[in-house]
User: Fold this.
Amino acid sequence: MSQEKHAIWYEPHPVSPERKAAIRSFGFRILDADFKPTDYENPDVPELQLAPELRSDGPTVAEFVAAGYLAIDYPPTGYTPVSTAEEVSQVIADQQAQVQQVPASDESALGQGADEAQQVELTATQIKDLLTAKGIAFKGNASRESLLELLNAAPNA
Assistant:
């Protein structure tokens, strides 16, 4: 009697019926990941790769903002939100209200023709706040230089 040799796929148990069917459809035999040899890697099959798990030990939105980040960028990349959607919305609204309270004299020199000496003093967070106040969209991970370019291109309002 010959026994067919099947490739092995090590998977953390319990395995859902859907996941079992997907793995078996590629001809793999499923073994518990607890028995996986340390030097073994599952074969490279993109359709079977699990999405990386998000960490659940991240900061609250208040801690995130206290560290100098914008609430609109919450939660940090790779983390699940700890704060509720309502808490995040409230902090975003609070930050936007703070930006709108910036005196016009502070904001008037920024934008087209802004004095470079003033811009050098601005942090990325301050530039993001000004862009948000002007309603200009930007990527949360944009560099300070990219943010300055957006600010310089913005019409003075």
